[in-house]
Amino acid sequence: MPGPAGRRRAAEDETMTDNSTACGGLDGENGFGRFFLPGPTEVRPAVLAAQKRALIGHRGEPINALMREIQPGLRAVFGTARPVLVSTSSATGLMEAAVRNGARERVLSLVNGAFSERFARIARACGVEVDVVETPWGGVHDPDAVRARLRAGRYDAVTMVHSETSTGALNPIADLAAAVREFPGTLVLVDAVTSAGGAPVQADDRGLDFVLAGSQKAMALPPGLAFGVASERMLERSANAARKGVYFDLVAFYNSLAKEQTPNTPAVTLMYSLAEQVRHISAEGLEGRWARHAAMARRCADWADASGERIGAGLSVLAPDGFRSPTVTCLLLPPGRTGPEVAHAMKERGFVIGAGYGRLKPRSVRIGHMGDHTVEELDRVLGALEEVLRAPPGQGLAGGSR
Predict the structure, then answer these.
(1) Cα–Cα distance measured from residue 292 to residue 34, given in angstroms and rounded to the nearest whole number
(2) Which of 151, 192, 344, 396 is the most buried (most CB within 10 A)?
(3) What's the pLDDT at 49?
(4) Is 300 left (phi over 0), alpha (psi -120 to 50) or beta?
């Protein structure tokens, strides 16, 4: 007969039983609406319930077992044979870690949106000299242009974003990384915040020296965790980095990973959720997960392309065909409509989407079709959005059924 601890764990497991693939927890329950933001995303009830498990200490066999459980799934998501670090922070924390561990004096930042711009801003705040190659927001970077810039000056690292969350553009990360690696000593630092879990990252095959992501995007987890993979080149650079600090010391992370631990006290309850979700992702299969995300992106683009007859001219996908993120679509709105107005009208209909971000805020909205959402759920969002856009400006707030 199980003792008290065993009975408690059995009861916890019973409360977490949920074989549904639908997202849940927010739709109508708390009045927030259904999240189709480009983060945070909807979180399955089983993932939320996993946080109710009894706490464990962060040193010893229980945490070791938890780390062993999550590593295979994380390695598959990032396309790496290397250990994946888990940081109790946002992804912004690991953007800073990338710079503090990987840059000595000078970096080149590839900017094509608000979050690649943030990467450059973080580097400057860390005391690093930053040169910028900027392409129009919504566009992607040309590897040949990057090569030309690298020939003109020496850089410790190049920062770039895979899926630019503010614009819905997907940079050709494999080609960009290959261009950078032609220059010995220049590291490839990649923000994969809205691609990891929804698109192939392939850190090893693409030669990414540091790639990072957050929990609340395509991984479909609560906010609060960040994940990263460092190459041997990155760890060699980190070992002698003068400004890496303590909390984001990558050598310390990897020394702890060798002991199946974290260097600092982890958010154990969030790691329970992570373990539950990597099981779910493994059961779906990464190829299937990537295909589902790609299908949602296609549906969104096809709907926008066909909307002219029903809605009128002016609605379009910002990112060019062939370079669109599978996890987030940025839609340029018809004249007379604003991002905040349309997002508010959508919330009245039970769907939370994102207004445009940064300089795109007034004239666009963003739909996050990531995590555990489906094409069928996305169709409901697009139907509601069509209602809003067909109504005269200012008259789309009458509500509607969820």
Answers:
(1) 19
(2) 192
(3) 97
(4) alpha
Give the C-alpha separation, 366 to 330, whole Å: 4
Structure tokens at 304: 């926008």
- DSSP annotation of 34: E
H or E element that contains 291: helix 286-306
Hey, what are 233's tokens?
Answer: 């080149």
Structural domains in the chain plus CATH codes: 61-281 (3.40.640.10)
d(CA 344, CA 364): 13
Question: What is the sign, positive or negative, of the torsion defined by CA atoms of 214, 220, 224, 225?
Answer: negative
pLDDT > 90? residue 17: no
Question: Does a cis peptide bond (omega within 30 degrees of 0) precede residue 40?
Answer: yes
Output the pLDDT for position 32.
72
- DSSP code, position 151: H
**CB-based burial label for 20 (10 Å; 0-12, 13-18, 19+):** exposed
Distance CA 169, CA 295 (A): 16
Report the length, in residues, of the chain.
402
Calpha distance 287→310 (Å, rounded): 35
**Residue 367, both tokens:** 């739909």
Round to whole Å and give the CA distance between 247 and 36.
32
pLDDT of the residue at 392: 84
* pLDDT at residue 294 in the model: 99
> Tokens for 215?
């929990």
395: pLDDT confidence band, cut at 50, 70 and 90? low
Give residues with Cβ within 8 angstroms of 383, minimum separation 6: none
Gap between the Cα atoms of 84 and 5, Å rounded: 30
Q: Residue 394 pLDDT more than 90?
A: no
Mean pLDDT of 152-156: 95
Buried residues in 345-374 as b, exposed as e (16+ CB within 10 A): bbbebbbbbbbbbeebbebbbbbbbbbbbe
Buried b (16+ CB within 10 A) or exposed e, 83-92: bbbbbbbbbb
pTM: 0.90
